[in-house]
Design a protein that fits this description.
Blueprint (H helix, E strand, L loop, with lengths): L17 E6 L3 H16 L3 E2 L10 E6 L6 H18 L4 E6 H6 L1 H6 L5 E3 L7 H11 L3 E3 L20 E5 L1 E2 L10 H5 L3 E2 L2 H13 L4 E5 L15 H9 L7 E5 L8 H9 L6 E3 L7 H7 L5 H14 L4 E8 L6 H14 L3 E6 L17 H24 L5 E6 L7 H4 L1 E5 L5 E5 L10 E5 L2 E2 L4 E3 L5 E3 L2 H15 L29
Parallel strand pairs: 1-2, 1-3, 3-4, 4-5, 5-6, 7-10, 10-11, 12-13, 13-14, 17-20
Antiparallel strand pairs: 8-9, 15-16, 15-18, 16-17, 18-21, 19-20
Length: 509
């Protein structure tokens, strides 16, 4: 594609190019977008103001390929940007992530106004590719086949001052028949424990008090290092880091979830009583067809062991409804596991074909209306269980880490919101004294809804933290900067960008 080079690119009033990143999919993509932001700011770009919606000088799509309609969403959004780009010479559009890794040259054929296409293995090249596209006046497509450098070495603009993602591995060695992620993210590669712990210590030094260890199959960590107990050792080592209050991880795989990990969770005080354990199906024949290397009995056995070691643990899961060949009896087995496991919540998905996966070619695809009916039954059951499990929290006194922006109605209700140790969302009465995101309040739960808890009485105690200090420092620094004002066309007919999904990493494990 050719760009006009005889006019200056649109910039904000301070003469600096602005950027906007739209993120789709799992936590891995959310964390990758933090790195993309860091890279662009390191290269001199500034983040576009909230609500820029395509008015930035560089718009980056960090894509997901897990869901069936991912392609349509991307090309629809690119189509909406085409007239904006035509009216603003110098504006650039980049597409990265899993869909870029999969579609490669297809993207610039279907959307020739795109300037850069980059893959999951070479996100560090984005600033260079943008500059190359500008100078050469043609689209740059660069898809690395394997990891060039572990992405945690890249500059990162963390979205939170008090909580952070920390990648411990990339890629996945599983061969689930419904999942395209291993083909796009590659084989598992583990970071050295010393590098991980050094990053966590540095984050804690900056004020972070909660970290989430992140990997496509997080508890397989160590398979690349030749140490089967590496993950439990890593959890215990996190317990020795002074100032680190909360440790979480996502997403594990039942195959690799071993007793030493359960013991490490139970015996390490700052590892939170929370577990996301993907089920996918409760039917042994369906699990076999999915190439999931566990069966119903093994899965329920893990849940039982976790509950015995950590009685207050909140356990969540992923479930796929309508996998090819799923019978009514198969589906009833999934419902049975849901009743037995009593998940705090579940991310439920209707099966969708992904080209390039074995499941897409399987016979006995389940009719859409059957899948929909089963899905609604599953959601209704899980909603009932979630509510019952939340009601058990009423009367408990919990330490809640104050969050930023989690309570949409907080302003109207004069409440604040935060997360309990087990990651349940808690809305609580705003105390008389100031509390900041990252601070910790002690509250008594008075009411339970299916997806949140309420603490309607007075806050029992407030603990100001270094994490709250870090949030305040960042907020004051941002307020001191003059806000960028973008030049360009007024906002006409551009849909709001989809929010980043909060589902577990790739929903595939």
């Amino acid at each position: 594609m050719t760009l006009s080079s005889d006019r200056s690119p649109a910039v904000n009033v301070h003469g600096t190019k602005s950027y906007e990143i739209r993120t789709y999919g799992c936590q891995m993509n959310v964390h990758d977008s933090e790195r993309l932001s860091g890279l662009l700011e390191d290269a001199g770009y500034v983040r576009a103001p909230e609500g820029a919606d395509g008015e930035a000088d560089v718009v980056v799509f960090n894509t997901c390929a897990v869901r069936e309609n991912a392609d349509n969403k991307l090309y629809g959004n690119l189509g909406h940007l085409a007239p904006k780009k035509a009216a603003r010479p110098g504006m650039q559009i980049a597409v990265g992530g899993c869909l870029a890794q999969k579609d490669r040259d297809t993207i610039v054929k279907r959307a020739p106004w795109v300037d850069v296409v980059f893959g999951t293995h070479n996100i560090g090249k984005l600033p260079v590719l943008l500059e190359r596209a500008r100078v050469q006046e043609e689209a740059q497509v660069e898809i690395a086949e394997s990891l060039e450098a572990f992405p945690s070495t890249l500059p990162t603009r963390r979205e939170s001052a008090y909580a952070a993602w920390v990648s411990i591995s990339v890629g996945c060695n599983n061969t689930c028949t419904f999942c395209i992620v291993p083909a796009l993210r590659g084989k598992e590669e583990d970071r050295r424990p010393g590098d991980i712990l050094a990053e966590i210590e540095a984050l804690v030094g900056e004020g972070v008090s909660e970290i989430t260890l992140l990997g496509q199959n997080v508890n397989a960590y160590g398979s690349d290092l030749g140490d089967r107990e590496a993950f439990s050792k890593l959890l215990r080592a996190c317990g020795d880091i002074e100032g680190l209050e909360r440790v979480r991880f996502t997403s594990p795989h039942p195959r690799d979830f071993t007793d030493d990990v359960i013991a490490a969770m139970a015996e390490t005080p700052n590892v939170m009583p929370q577990l996301h354990m993907p089920l996918q199906s409760g039917s042994d024949p369906v699990l076999k067809a999915m190439r999931r290397s566990y069966r119903q009995e093994r899965f329920l056995g893990i849940i039982e062991k976790v509950r015995a070691a950590i009685p207050h643990a909140a356990i969540s899961t992923d479930i796929i409804v309508g996998f090819p060949g799923e019978t009514e009896e198969d589906f009833e087995q999934t419902m049975h596991v849901v009743r037995e496991a009593r998940f705090a919540n579940a991310f439920t998905f209707q099966y969708s074909k992904r080209p390039g996966t074995p499941a897409a070619e399987m016979e006995n695809q389940v009719p859409k209306e059957v899948v929909q009916a089963r899905y609604e039954r599953l959601v209704a059951l899980q909603e009932e269980i979630s509510w019952d499990e939340n009601k058990k929290q009423v009367g408990r006194t919990l330490e809640v880490m104050v969050a930023e922006g989690e309570g949409r109605k907080d302003g109207a209700t004069h409440r604040l919101s935060g997360r309990a140790p087990d990651n349940r969302l808690v809305h609580f009465t705003k105390p008389d004294e100031e509390v900041r995101p990252g601070d910790v309040v002690t509250v008594e739960i008075t009411y339970a809804a299916p997806h949140h808890l309420l603490a309607e009485g007075q806050v029992v105690a407030v603990r100001r933290t270094r994490a709250g200090d870090a949030w305040q420092k960042r907020t004051e620094a941002a307020a001191a900067k003059p806000a960028g004002v973008l030049l360009g066309l007024p906002k006409i007919g551009v849909p709001e960008p989809l929010p980043a999904a909060s589902a577990p990493a790739c929903g595939s494990h």
